[in-house]
């Protein structure tokens, strides 16, 4: 299996471990580290990463690479404005999906991961998937690069370099992009 696919499945397995924590179950309805999201909504959002890839693979492959967007462009669309259309939609969808409870969300994530392990092995190399307005299938390395690229886009390359080099040179928290 290609490196990106293996990295995605590895990241999803780690996310699943975090989601399965008894502390998560106990704090399901409490506020999370993300503004205006409960722990349950955050876990439901995390679980959706698995189901979204699966859903995208069910759709026909895009006919060309002309509309391919970078992972940075994909994640940058979220932005820091909590009242943006996309952020409001993400929170509402996540809250709704969390209503079924910890065990059900975790079960859905498990079933999705089981299906994806087989599905990704059988997809052709270079397979693109449709997401929002373009195509992408990022892995961990791509996601990290995307987050750094977003920070550079918002704050400039020098600010990112300073933030990476020395914490005290990052008073604006340049690397906090989402």
Could you write a compact summary of the structure shown?
This protein is mainly alpha-helical and 178 residues long.
Write the layout of secondary structure elements.
Blueprint: H1 3-19, H2 22-26, H3 39-58, H4 71-76, H5 85-98, H6 102-122, E1 130-131, E2 134-135, H7 140-155, H8 157-165
Antiparallel strand pairs: 1-2
Helix pairs in contact: 1-3, 1-6, 3-5, 3-6, 7-8
Work out the number of β strands: 2
Q: Globular, elongated, flat, extended or rod-shaped: what is the shape?
A: globular
Approximate helicity band:
55-70%
Q: Approximately how much beta-strand content do the residues carry?
A: under 5%
Question: What is the chains' assembly state?
Answer: single chain
Estimate nothing, just give the exact number of structural domains.
1
List the helices and strands in order: HHHHHHEEHH
| Tally of separate helices | 8
Mean pLDDT: 81
Strand order of the largest sheet: 1-2
Kindly name the structural category.
mainly alpha
Q: Which segments are poorly predicted (pLDDT under 50) over 5 or more consecutive residues?
A: none
Which value, in Å, is the CA radius of gyration?
Answer: 17 Å
For the termini, the CA-CA separation is 30 Å
Main sheet summary = 2 strands, antiparallel
Describe this structure in words.
By secondary structure, the protein is mostly helical. The chain has one domain (3-169). It is 61% helix and 2% strand. It is built from 8 helices and 2 strands, in the order ααααααββαα. The protein has helices at 3-19, 22-26, 39-58, 71-76, 85-98, 102-122, 140-155, 157-165, and strands at residues 130-131, 134-135. 22% of the residues are buried. The model has no long low-confidence stretch (mean pLDDT 81).
């Amino acid at each position: 299996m290609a490196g990106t696919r293996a990295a995605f499945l590895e990241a999803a397995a780690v996310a699943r471990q975090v989601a399965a924590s008894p502390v998560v179950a106990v704090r399901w309805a409490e506020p999370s580290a993300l503004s205006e999201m409960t722990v349950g909504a955050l876990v439901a959002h995390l679980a959706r990463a698995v189901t979204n890839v699966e859903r995208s693979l069910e759709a026909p492959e895009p006919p060309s690479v002309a509309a391919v967007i970078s992972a940075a462009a994909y994640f940058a669309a979220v932005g820091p404005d909590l009242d943006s259309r996309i952020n409001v939609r993400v929170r509402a969808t996540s809250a709704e999906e969390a209503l079924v409870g910890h065990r059900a969300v975790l079960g859905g994530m498990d079933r999705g991961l089981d299906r994806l392990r087989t599905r990704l092995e059988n997809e052709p190399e270079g397979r693109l998937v449709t997401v929002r307005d373009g195509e992408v299938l990022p892995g961990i390395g791509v996601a990290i690069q995307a987050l750094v690229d977003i920070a550079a886009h918002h704050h400039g390359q020098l600010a990112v370099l300073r933030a990476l080099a020395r914490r005290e040179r990052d008073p604006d928290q340049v690397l906090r992009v989402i």
